[in-house]
């Protein structure tokens, strides 16, 4: 067990519950489609985290960090995807507000559906997550510890914390979703979420670093 596991858990807990695009999507899909919608979105986020963590452990994230062009390309792709989701939600709010579109529908058991895809793609196209793993994990590898094994263990702890958080969050949001199941509530929810995603997209696209 890594010597600095407890302080690492504290940092991970704060990072995991900090609001961002992933939490906005989980909230929106959870309020729209209940526990399943939130949970599938959260699982998509977790798979994205797993990919970034694996890349960091294998040293692949360093390539992204070293290339300003690659970093900018991933960042702009992520901003474009958030803008796409925002526009789709605004269209849903204007046109219907009652029946979810194909992009926001959660399909029956056996199919992961759009919610999972949204969580996954949003995380994969966020280069800051790659840099987070690249810079955070080495700080909690104590002198004398095997670097590769310890880094991999810390990455698994990060992933496990994320899975636990999104499962708990999805269960908590279920009862609220039943109170907001009407047409008017759906339109307001989609409108607010769409505007928020567009604002986040603009911030991501134009921020430096």
TrEMBL record:
- Name the UniProt key words of this record, in alphabetical order: Cell membrane, Membrane, Transmembrane, Transmembrane helix
Q: How does it sit in the membrane?
A: Multi-pass membrane protein
A molecular-function term among this protein's GO annotations:
amino acid transmembrane transporter activity
Q: Which InterPro entries match?
A: LeuE-type (IPR001123)
Where does the record place it? Cell membrane
Give any Gene Ontology cellular component: plasma membrane
- Leader sequence range is none
- The highest taxon in the source lineage is Bacteria
* Bilayer-crossing regions: 6-27, 39-64, 70-91, 125-142, 154-176
> Which PANTHER family does its entry note?
ARGININE EXPORTER PROTEIN ARGO (PTHR30086), ARGININE EXPORTER PROTEIN ARGO-RELATED (PTHR30086:SF20)
Name of the protein described by the UniProt record: Lysine transporter LysE
Q: Which organism is it from?
A: Actinoallomurus iriomotensis
